[in-house]
Amino acid sequence: MVAWFDNSSEISFVATNGGHCREGATEPRRRYATNRVHRRRRLARTHTTMDDNRQEQQSHDGPAGMAPDGVIESNWSEAVENFDDMGLREELLRGIYAYGFEKPSAIQQRAITPCIAGRDVIAQAQSGTGKTATFSIAILQLIDTSLNECQALILAPTRELASQIQKVVISLGDFLKAQCHACIGGTNVRDDMRRLEQGCHIVVGTPGRVHDMISRNVLRTSNIKLFVLDEADEMLSRGFKDQIQDVFRKLPSDVQVILLSATMPADVLEVSQHFMRDPVKILVKKEELTLEGIKQFYVDVKFEDWKLGTLCDLYDTLSITQAVIFCNTRRKVDQLTEEMTEKTFTVSAMHGDMEQRDRDLIMKQFRTGSSRVLITTDLLARGIDVQQVSLVINYDLPTLRENYIHRIGRGGRFGRKGVAINFVTEQDKRVLADIEKHYNTSIEEMPANLADMI
């Protein structure tokens, strides 16, 4: 059965039939979370209200444009509007509220229930709508923390995203005492081996290192019951495809598979058929993918050589907030960073050729706000959650139009407002038009009062 809907910020639900083949805290924080669970349940029973503005200001109510009401008219019966009604463990609920969530976002309302019911799930939603928490909550509900073995394996395309997922899992699973290890390249192999031999409930990592640990028989797979591919389009449609398939062959034949991404091209759905059985699909229509709340503009720079001067002119605007500048190559990142530094502008840079410890330091500085302008490649475009970012500049338009949404999504996490600026040469105008057509959006020329919008 298939259903599409025409509401704004549209998510459409598709359930397919026909089996597919498989190839094989502190104490105050704890008291707050416990009280939040019981308080919410008392309110539900008595239908009373309470003035809790101070706590509400710290909680996420779901992203703008993705409000629970009116998003989906689905023939899928489970669209649960409150975490309390999902049948989750008490300790997990405490972790969810302690983390700052108040109500599930649209994707969480619809995807968590089939995930914890054991269904294979393909879930697609915009960046910043809570996909990471969706599968993290499902995993934490299903694992047995008394069994000191890996029971859930999560693959992510970058080290930074894997590390971020680990932090989310540990925070949400704090009261369950769930153990999660990040198994990523650029770190000491022996440290990985030692940690895995000690045992942990959840492993999140990049495909190469995870495959290596399985090949060494250090990462034991016999108890894995959930296999998650985060940013599945990136993972399956590019260089990680073979490694993912090799990892999958080592997993139990009845493993549950969950795929999540902001975009899901047809070829990825086709590939997924080989290792998913009768999956629930929760999909966003292509024309609805551009992020709600992100203002998109372009600057006509005419020629490549004029980009640097334009960026320098914008620097005062960049530095009043936190900004990410995207280039298409690592060489361009280094070149632009050097040129900006020579002109006495303060910027930082990050790309895949850097040592892991340097990348970690730069990312930490950017998260804490000690660094305010970051120049990077698409390494940062996928899933890296820096809440303070409100401005994204595409110094180069992305070579893959699917990456456009990942890039501009850095500027509007969890419904926060953001601005995206695209530098466009004469040769780029056709590319910009293609992006507008693909996402059914209009990108206007940058106004003079840009600073007022940030």
Summarize the structure in short.
The protein has 454 residues and is an alpha/beta fold.
Describe this entry's structure for a reader.
With 454 residues, the chain is α/β, with parallel strands linked by helices. It has 2 domains: 12-284, P-loop containing nucleotide triphosphate hydrolases (Rossmann fold); 294-453, Rossmann fold (3-Layer(aba) Sandwich), CATH 3.40.50. The chain contains 16 helices and 15 strands. The chain has an 8-stranded mixed sheet with strand order 1-8-2-7-6-3-5-4, sandwiched between helices. A 7-stranded parallel sheet has the order 11-12-10-13-14-9-15, with helices on both faces. Helix 7 (189-198) links the parallel strand 4 and strand 5. Helix 8 (207-215) runs parallel beside helix 10 (241-249). The chain is globular, with a radius of gyration of 22 Å.
* Main β-sheet description: 8 strands, mixed
Strand content: 15-25%
User: What is the averaged pLDDT score?
Assistant: 78
Distance between the termini: 43 Å
CATH class of the largest domain: Alpha Beta
* CATH homologous superfamily title of the largest domain: P-loop containing nucleotide triphosphate hydrolases
Pairing-aware structural class of the strands and helices? alpha/beta
* Gyration radius, rounded: 22 Å
Global geometry: globular
Q: Within the CATH hierarchy, at the fold level, what is the topology of the largest domain?
A: Rossmann fold
* Strand segment tally: 15
Please give the domain count. Answer: 2
Which second-level CATH architecture of the largest domain applies? 3-Layer(aba) Sandwich
Query: How many DSSP helices?
Result: 16
- Strands of the widest sheet, in order across it, are 1-8-2-7-6-3-5-4
What is the helical fraction, as a range of percent? 25-40%
